Structure formats: C-alpha cells, structure tokens
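[Solved] Which block belongs to which protein?

Original post:
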Amino acid sequence: MSDHLIGGIEPPYYTVVFTSVRTGDDEEAYAETARRMEELVRDVPGFLGHESARTPGGIGITVGYFRDEEAIAAWRADAEHQGAMRRGRADWYERYSVHVGRVERSYRFDHR
C-alpha cells in the first residue's frame, strides 16, 4: 500500500480508479515512469492525493483523488502523462480499466 493515504478530504470530490494487470516487462523503466508520474500529478491544481497497491502477480489498483472534473481533465491532457499512457499500452500492461466517480460520502477508521 502506498504511503499517500487520504484522510480529511470533504466530499464531494472525484476518484479515478486505475486497475491494471502488468506484463512484468522492463520493471526498471516502469518504476522510473511511475515515480515521475507521482511527481508530475502533484502539480495539477485540484489533485488531492492517491493510494496504490499491487500484488506480487502484477495486479494493481491506484486510486487518484481530485477536487473536480477539470483537475482530472488537466491530468489526462498532460503531454508527459499521455506519453506514459502510450508506453503503458505498448509495453507494461496486459490490460487495464479506468473508472471515474464522484464521492458523495466518505469515512475512515484508524486503529491506534
């Protein structure tokens, strides 16, 4: 699980859920690109954070949190992000899906 756990965001906000199955090819380039995308998305106005998890078998889920649909559109339109998406389809993913949703309610539990 990533260390970017989200808390304290007041709804409504939007999620982009990216679920993928990796090919396992070119792990080093994939990791470098993933790090760069994490850096880049932080500069998008309206980006609130993200959470990620991946199984040893290559199944991954990343949930991005955005204040509004304009922030999502800005991230999708980013030229460097578009290049990473093309590379992902060509080299790194067997398959993936993207789901965008509006969060109306949210709560959490922290065992301390």
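(Second protein starts here: sequence line, then its structure tokens.)
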Amino acid sequence: MNNNITDVFFDLDHTLWDFEKNSALAFETVFKMQKLELDMSKFLHFYVPINREYWERYRKDEISQKELRYGRLKDTFDLVEYAVSDDLVELLSVEYIHFLPKFNHLFEGTIEILDYLKPNYNLHIITNGFAEIQENKLNNSYITHYFKSITNSEMAGVKKPNSLIFDYALNLAKTTKENSIMIGDCIEADVQGALDAGLDAILFNENNTFVKENIKQVNHLLELKKYL
C-alpha cells in the first residue's frame, strides 16, 4: 500500500448504501400503492440482473437516463409475464425513484469504518448515480457529514470508468492521484477505472466473486482496516 494516502474515495451504491435492500423496499411500497399483486421474490430475481445490465449500458452511454428507468422495469414485467401499460410503467419508474432514497439501509460496518477513517483521511464520494437522488440517499442515511466532497457523473459530464470523472473528483477534493485511493464494488467502473486514472483502488467484493490476484479486495467494509 501507498503510505502517502490522504484521501479516500468511496462509491455509494452497492458499496456503502445497500442498494438491493433499499430497492426491494421501494418496490414493495410502490406496488402496494398501485395495488399490484406480484411475487416480489420472482420480480427481484429478474430485476436485479436486468438493472445491472441497464446500468452498464448507461455507463457506456448506450442508453439515456430515461431509457434506463423505463427499460429495466418494462423488461422485468415482460419476463414475469405481468401485463402493465406503458403509462403505468412510466408512473412506476417515477414513483420508484421518489421512494428509493427514502430508505437508508447501509452495509454492515459502514458507520464504524467511516468513524475509523475520518480522523486520519479526507473522505469523498464518486458516484455514477443521479445528483439529487444520491444526495437524498446520503442525507437520509445520515452519512453526508463524513464526506468533504461528493462527485457525481452529472457534475463531471462523464461516468466511471472514464478517467475524467476521477480527474474532476481529485480537483474538487484538492488532492492528487498519488495520495488517493478508490473503494467500490464494480471491478470495471470503480477499480479498473481508478487504476487507469492513476489512483490506487480496493474492490468491495461482498459476494466474494473471483478477481485477479493483483486486485486488492475486501469482503467486509471493516477489512479496510488492513489497508488504511
């Protein structure tokens, strides 16, 4: 490890903020409001990988924000063979985004690791999520105060893994790549993106998926104490 690290950059969704748990709660709320009788476990079984696929396409600028929000729902309803109108899909996509940041489940160890790091490092966020939504997630989870800067892809004009978003974040944080490290769950966007931009990186590998031996990784956030 680089002993000169002064600034630690975190991804938000799937790294600190428990996206899948909060997403499920948001869908339960919205479906109940609209009186949709769905097998939630079956719906989520299809939605979770579809959402990841749509986010990857969005990250690569293959689809727009609107296409992401509509398509991931439409495709899931089609796969579970639940008939919904286009107007209802549009409504559900809006309501889901409204309720999603209201839930505030964090990964186990989030608060403890932030408390551990904050006295010794400047902490920051770099996220591909939408500005207003991510701000609400941070505020409702009561963790905004830990971070000196928050960079999102709307501000930077590009998304991770584009090196320009890391340059933007470093400039906003008033630090250098040599003194910085990125922590996130996505090997392509967070880890390889940071490494290509000249930062060190650690993968938050909660599901213990196989990665190359040269990639630093943790399976639990508190394991970051081994590195920082």
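Accepted answer:
You had them paired correctly. Confirming on the second one: The chain has two domains: 7-17+105-226, 19-102.
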